[in-house]
């Protein structure tokens, strides 16, 4: 049974995730940085640095949301970055942010389903996803689509929450995710389901070596797993 945000609804996970992000779009950036104490910014920087040696020129950011990962990727000096997402609400916030910063000519945000990407085979030098693969309705299918549109020799970088294994971080993490995050998330965003779904989806996600196994099954080679901040988050890289 897939973990979904709104358990009283009959819509599929994809529809519910889009609805959830549309609901919280206006508060998402603030909550993201506040609830992680800004560590998410450091994680994105680390993920982007892993792409530096390959010098990608055409990039795709999947589940781009408000475009934070795409903006960080500009440090690589690519020719073009396209961000795709299923939440028009998140991208509307992202487009305004890009316009304010004068970046709307460098990054384009488009509606796009991770399991049916609107691009031809072998299009992108690099693909990034930050905190998005956990929301895929069909994880292997979404990863297969990433592999399809990536150029031979290209690199995919996935940044995602994981589950700490060691004491005391494991216990502190679980307490924070189950007791503090949903309360603060509901108070600020007015959508409790969104911040109850987050820890539930992290718990259900096949992180670590399990994710690497799926990564490899869809075709990625030279896969690596980088654990961050005592196992709170992970970066996964793979090549086509």
TrEMBL record:
E.C. designation(s): 2.1.1.163
GO molecular function terms noted in the UniProt entry: demethylmenaquinone methyltransferase activity
Positions with a binding annotation for S-adenosyl-L-methionine: 66, 85, 113-114
Gene3D superfamilies per UniProt: Vaccinia Virus protein VP39
EC main group: transferase
Family to which the UniProt record says this protein belongs: Belongs to the class I-like SAM-binding methyltransferase superfamily. MenG/UbiE family.
Name of protein: Demethylmenaquinone methyltransferase
Naturally occurring in which organism (per UniProt): Pontibacter qinzhouensis
